[in-house]
C-alpha cells in the first residue's frame, strides 16, 4: 500500500486534524492523528491492516494486544486478519495491567499494536507487561509512526505510515507563543502534579 492511498483514506475518514493539540505525552503539536475515525469504517480498517498483516505472515503470531482505548479496535481487527486471539491492556491506578480475565501464556508469540505512536510510552508499558508474563514480543505494529522511524522501542516496529510530525515541549511550542489555545483530543487524561 502506498503512502498516497493511506493519506487519501486519512483525509476521507478525518484521521488527520490541523490545529494546536496537547498530546497524551504532554507535548504539543499542530497535527493530531485521530485513528478512531479510521476504525469507524471497517472496509478502510481492513484495507490498511490487511496490508500491515502481510508483514507478519511468517511470524506465527499467537496473540495481539494493544493499550486501551486507542488500540482496542485495532487489536481485534488485526487478530481477526491474522487468525489469532486478541486482548487489550488497560490502566488501573495509573498502571498498565491485564484485567477481565485476560492473560498471556509463557512462550506465546505476541504482536503489540497501537494506533499512533509519538513517544511510545503506552507501547513500552504494554511491552513490559508482555515480557513480565513470559510472552515473546514479535514486533510492534502501528498505523501511524509520528517519529518518521526515529522511535526506538527495542524491538521491530512496523507502521502503515511513518510521518515526520513535529511535537514540542510546552515551553518551546511556537503555537503557545502565538497565543493559540490548545485542545486535548486524546483518550487519556494527563497525570496531575
Q: Would you write up a description of this structure?
A:
This protein is an alpha/beta fold and 193 residues long. Helix content is 26%, strand content 28%. The protein contains five helices and eight strands, in the order αββαβαβββαββα. It has a six-stranded mixed beta sheet with strand order 5-4-3-6-7-8, sandwiched between helices. Helix 2 packs across helix 3. It is globular, with a radius of gyration of 16 Å. The chain starts with a helix and ends in a 16-residue tail after the last helix. The C terminus is likely disordered.
Radius of gyration equals: 16 Å
Strand sequence of the main sheet, in spatial order? 5-4-3-6-7-8
Give the helices and strands as they follow along the chain. Answer: HEEHEHEEEHEEH
Strand content: 25-35%
Query: Mean pLDDT across all residues, rounded?
Result: 91
Given helix and strand content, the structural type is alpha/beta
Which of globular, elongated, flat, extended, rod-shaped describes the shape?
A: globular
In DSSP terms (H or I, runs of 4 or more residues), the helix count works out at 5
Biggest sheet features: 6 strands, mixed
Bin the helical content: 25-40%
**E-strand count:** 8
User: How many angstroms separate the termini?
Assistant: 43 Å
Unreliably modeled segments? 189-193
SSE topology:
Blueprint: H1 3-13, E1 16-22, E2 28-33, H2 42-53, E3 63-67, H3 72-82, E4 85-92, E5 95-97, E6 109-117, H4 121-132, E7 136-145, E8 157-162, H5 174-177
Parallel strand pairs: 3-4, 3-6, 6-7, 7-8
Antiparallel strand pairs: 1-2, 4-5
Amino acid at each position: 500500500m502506498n503512502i498516497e492511498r493511506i493519506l487519501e483514506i486519512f483525509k476521507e475518514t478525518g484521521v488527520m486534524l490541523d490545529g494546536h493539540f496537547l498530546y497524551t505525552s504532554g507535548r504539543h503539536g499542530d497535527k493530531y492523528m485521530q485513528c478512531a475515525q479510521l476504525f469507524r469504517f471497517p472496509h478502510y480498517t481492513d484495507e490498511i491492516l490487511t496490508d500491515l498483516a502481510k508483514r507478519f505472515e511468517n511470524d506465527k503470531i499467537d496473540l495481539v494486544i494493544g493499550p486501551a482505548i486507542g488500540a482496542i479496535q485495532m487489536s481485534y481487527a488485526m487478530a481477526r486478519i491474522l487468525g489469532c486471539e486478541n486482548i487489550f491492556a488497560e490502566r488501573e491506578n495509573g498502571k498498565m495491567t491485564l484485567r477481565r480475565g485476560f492473560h498471556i501464556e509463557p512462550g506465546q508469540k505476541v504482536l503489540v499494536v497501537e494506533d499512533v505512536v509519538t513517544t511510545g510510552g503506552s507501547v513500552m508499558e504494554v511491552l513490559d507487561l508482555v515480557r513480565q508474563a513470559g510472552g515473546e514480543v514479535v514486533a510492534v505494529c502501528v498505523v501511524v509512526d509520528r517519529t518518521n522511524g526515529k522511535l526506538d522501542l527495542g524491538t521491530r516496529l512496523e507502521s502503515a505510515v511513518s510521518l515526520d510530525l513535529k511535537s514540542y515541549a510546552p515551553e518551546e511550542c511556537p503555537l503557545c507563543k502565538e497565543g493559540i489555545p490548545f485542545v486535548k483530543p486524546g483518550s487519556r487524561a494527563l497525570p496531575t502534579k
